Structure formats: C-alpha cells, structure tokens
Amino acid sequence: MMRPGQGRALRMLERAERWLFRIGTPEPAPIRLVQRRIYVLPTPAGLAFAAALATMLLASINYNLSLGYGFVFLLGGTAMASMVHAFRNLLGLSIRAERCEPVFCGDTAGFVFSIDNTRNRRRPSLSLRTHGQQVGFDAGPAQLTRVCLPCPTTRRGLLSPGRTVIQTTWPLGLIRAWSVFVPEQHCVVYPAPEPDPPALPEDAGADAGMRGRSRDGDDDFTGLRTHRSADSPRHVAWKVLARGGPMLTKSYASWSSPDLVLDWSQLPRQLDDERRLSRLTAWLLAAEQHNRRYALKLPGCEVASGQGKAHLECCLGELARFGAPREEA
Q1: Which domains are seen in the chain, by residue range?
Q2: Rg (Cα) of the chain, in Å, rounded?
Q3: Low-confidence ranges of the chain (pLDDT < 50)
C-alpha cells in the first residue's frame, strides 16, 4: 500500500514531468524522435556507480595513487561514452500508431506500434511503457518493427494509450535515455457479455406458427407472374407457353425468422445501465451466431436491422460508447 506522503510526492513528480515535457494532446503520426525530444539521466545503478567513482577518487587523492587516478578516469570516460550511445540508440526513430482491434471489457487490448529504424545499424534493448505495462524489443537495421503493447481493460468505452514512454539503458545500464509521446490511437472496449443471458426476445404478439416471413428465394414455389427480361430462362413456365398461353415466370420464396428488435426500454427495470449493456451484448452475439437479422434501440440512438460482422461491430460500438460525451463518441 502507498503511504499518503508517497502518493503526494508521486503526483508532484508527475506534474513536474508534464510541465517539463509539455506533452498532453495526441500527436499525429509519424512521431519522430529528434534531439530535443530525448532526455538522459542516470539509472539507480548509474548513481551507485558514480558514488563508487567518487569514493575511489577520494581514496586516490588521499593516498596519492597515480594508478587510482587513471582507473577512475577510465571508468568515468566509459560511463560518459555510454551516455552518448544510449542517446544515439533512440535518435532518429520514427513511431507510428496502428489500428487497435476492439476487445470486450476484461480482455487485454493490444496497442500496436510500428518503429521505423532508418539507420543501417541495430537498435538493441528498447522498451515501450504505458498504463504500467512494458514490453521490450530490438529494432533491426533499416527495418520496420511492429511492437504490440498489451494493456488490460477494466471498463468499456474508448481506451487510449495516453502518455507512452520509449526508453533504453543500453549499453551498460548506467544511463537511461527516454522520450515521452502521446499517440493518436484508441481501442474500442465493448461491454462484457452477460455470462448466462436469457433467451433472445421474440415478438409475443405473433402467432407461433407464422413467425417466418417470405422473401425472394429458391425454396418454395408460390405461383406464376408476368415475365421480365431480367428473369432467368430456367424459371420460365415453358409448359404454359407451349399451350399457347402468355410468357410467365415461376415465382419462388424463402421463409426466414422475423427481425429481432433488441430494445433498451424492454429490459427489466431492476437492471442498472451496465447490466443492461451486458445483456444486450450477449443477445447481439447470440443473434449473430444464430444467423438472425436484428436491430438495436438505445436512448437517443437506433441502429437499423441488419446482419454480418460490420453490423455487429456497429451495434457493439454503440453499446461501448453509450453515455459518453458527444465529442468523445
């Protein structure tokens, strides 16, 4: 558990970082790491290394050790060289945020970034961090590297990576070079479906034996109609024509289940908003699985009847953004 004093100190450090880096709004791609965007500071191991060098330097001065002076300056020069290498390990990288696939609440969202290394040398020991999650990777010479940063979801809506950090401690782990950016990216988080939902709602006023509806198809013969030029020759009533009758076309029909209407207002009143969204999500998945056409009615929003992956994503997206401010939706 974090103590109150530690929490206040952490918030003060975050405010200082925001003021220092001047980053808040999403940035359009590509995001290029130029010299002014890269920051360098020693790591905890680097601070301990500096303290050890200071102790060795004091001992060399006290005992007038020429070899001690040389050893201290050699190690100090190595640490300074590692600072340059850490800085150049990030310099010139280009970052582009890719499309994030929608997920259900409780699943893990994957923010995908394309890291373009334009130089003909490898960029080792890089890492991306956001929302407390971190993933390491290497960028090959003159290659485009795709990195997926997993992020757990706890609520529905639009999830953005926010302030994302790319960093490296290569080559010695003494120096940390990093850059902060806010990608223009979001992941749609659908409501979690109800684990054991009731059966799909049907039209209670319709007769049980007449729930189907007819449409043009090839299942059942329904009669003859006037021939049209676009009709297939296979459907022409040739026997009627051979007896001297007019040219007619056989008409067929298919029978299917009626369209479902998943209406927010028809749900039980004791359900709160999130439980209603969870039930509607489960019904949408069930209707799609059973190859049914369905429409969705929400307060202030209606989705016409349809079917298929695109229609399902449209309906689930409306559920995910339900109640969000207009500019966010």
Answers
A1: 19-190 (2.60.40.3770), 212-256 (no CATH), 260-320 (no CATH)
A2: 33
A3: 1-2, 203-215, 217, 326-327, 329
